[in-house]
User: Which sequence fits this backbone?
């Protein structure tokens, strides 16, 4: 991993001086790398019950358990993008991005959760947004589901119920039929590991994502199992029925976090690798690896522990041979979300027999205190981990085309966000180094276009290139300094690195 910086610059190394005459170093950005920014429906749309929109698990969660949201807020209005989408597109034009990643709210399009009713207003909203983007030369990247499934499905256990695989397939079909003529980039799911861990299981007491099931050590595995099948279902549907004419690409957004060994000891290195397989491989291995199925280390540990605990079958559900084949290879690119890293903390973790993801992994993950963080957030900055994660994915699963579907930083309010600029600079440097290493990364997505409802952190954590005034009637959006930085980067195709 110790590649000299000159090599990272590759042919692109350049240099120059700023107006003060100080030397500035640049890294040139390869022509093949395109730029995007992103949001998700629940976090920005608002209009939670407008027209015939149905209730999602997140609508229910913020209304029924307000104490779980740090500032007690809801996303009922959020950024009001449902009404202000034209302003959103103006901002994207200002930035000069090639792509905009957004998600479709399942219950806005299908109010009952089923295709027995397609909302005319819902379909109009997404058609208008897509058309506005295309008119302005911005290509849509559409996430089919970003955590907000119909609340009605909780009556049957949400993602723990295999029926949702077909329900998702039916929904995806409507989405492809309605929008596939113009949308050429699809993301089936967003970070299912996080949705399943925090929504269906519990990690050392920090639960709190909808639907807040807390079915520890079982629920999270069932959830991800069905999400994997649903992802594969959508892939095959698209591949067989729509791709021949629509000619788009479909993949999924994997949560990644770099597992950093605490020391050079063999144990620490093994734990770091185990962390990668549990957090990233859990969702990635069945889709990207040559053999398919869950990472062998997960299978071995969880089968064994389940047996000792007296379960008749493993808490990590088994796939049939056909299912393994059905899920394997269901991608046109590898989608990665990266924010931070973690070290295995065995010292403060008392592994018990109680079924839980962490007990199975054998440790809890801790972020190093020397990794910078600005406010109360789950994100401590570890830019070097970005290059390492990308290389790990390539080493594990092959040198496939990679889309970075999220990367960003939480800060406080205000538009003078120099630290965000520094942070983006360091992340992007790490990304360009990964490209120099030979990794085929063709898309970078900054999270987020604007401040929005940051799940259980409410509006406390600000992650936008644009600041949003949530108290103003029209949710005024103002560009932060980082918006100018991103715009300049995209225009000049150079990354200044002596900040
Ligand atoms: C990942 C999630 O996909 C997104 O919704 C969230 O806002 C960011 N992480 C930041 O926490």
Assistant:
């Amino acid at each position: 991993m110790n590649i000299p910086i000159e090599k990272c610059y590759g042919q692109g190394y350049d240099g120059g001086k700023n107006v003060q005459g100080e030397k500035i170093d640049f890294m040139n950005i390869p022509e093949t790398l395109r730029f995007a920014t992103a949001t998700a429906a629940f976090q920005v749309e608002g209009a939670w019950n407008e027209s015939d929109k149905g209730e999602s698990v997140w609508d229910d969660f913020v209304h029924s358990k307000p104490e779980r949201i740090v500032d007690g807020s809801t996303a009922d209005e959020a950024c009001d993008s449902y009404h202000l989408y034209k302003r959103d597109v103006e901002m994207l034009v200002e930035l000069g991005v090639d792509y905009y990643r957004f998600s479709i709210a399942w219950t806005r399009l299908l109010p009952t959760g089923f295709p027995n009713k397609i909302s005319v207003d819902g379909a109009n909203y997404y058609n208008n947004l897509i058309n506005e983007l295309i008119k302005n030369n911005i290509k849509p990247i559409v996430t089919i589901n970003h955590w907000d499934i119909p609340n009605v499905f909780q009556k049957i256990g949400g993602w723990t119920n295999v029926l949702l695989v077909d329900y998702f397939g039916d929904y995806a079909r409507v989405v492809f039929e309605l929008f596939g003529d113009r949308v050429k980039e699809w993301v089936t799911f967003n970070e299912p590991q996080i949705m399943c861990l925090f929504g269906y299981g519990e990690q050392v007491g920090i639960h709190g994502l909808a639907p807040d099931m807390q079915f520890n050590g079982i629920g999270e595995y069932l959830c991800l199992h069905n999400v994997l099948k649903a992802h594969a279902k959508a892939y095959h549907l698209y591949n067989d029925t729509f791709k021949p004419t629509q000619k788009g690409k479909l993949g999924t957004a994997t949560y990644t976090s770099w597992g950093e060994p605490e020391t050079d000891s063999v144990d620490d290195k093994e734990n770091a690798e185990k962390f990668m397989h549990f957090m990233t491989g859990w969702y990635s291995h069945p889709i990207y690896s040559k053999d398919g199925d869950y990472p062998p280390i997960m299978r071995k540990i969880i089968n064994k522990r389940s047996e000792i605990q007296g379960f008749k079958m493993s808490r990590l559900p088994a796939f049939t041979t056909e299912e393994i084949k059905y899920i394997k290879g269901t991608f046109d690119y590898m989608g990665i979300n990266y924010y931070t890293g973690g070290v295995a903390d065995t010292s403060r973790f008392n592994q018990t027999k109680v079924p839980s993801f962490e007990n199975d992994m054998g440790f809890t993950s801790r972020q190093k205190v020397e990794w910078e963080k600005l406010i109360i957030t789950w994100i401590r900055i570890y830019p070097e981990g970005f290059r390492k994660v990308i290389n790990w994915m390539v080493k594990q699963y092959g040198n496939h085309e990679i889309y970075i579907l999220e990367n960003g930083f939480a800060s406080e309010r205000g538009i003078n966000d120099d630290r965000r600029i520094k942070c983006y600079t360091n992340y992007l440097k790490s990304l360009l180094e990964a490209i120099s290493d030979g990794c085929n990364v063709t898309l970078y997505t900054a999270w987020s276009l604007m401040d929005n409802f940051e799940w259980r952190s409410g509006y406390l954590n600000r992650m936008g290139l644009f600041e949003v005034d949530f108290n103003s009637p029209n949710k005024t959006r103002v560009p932060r300094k980082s918006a100018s930085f991103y715009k300049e980067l995209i225009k000049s195709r150079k990354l200044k690195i002596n900040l």
Q: What stands out?
A: The first helix runs from residue 5 to 9.
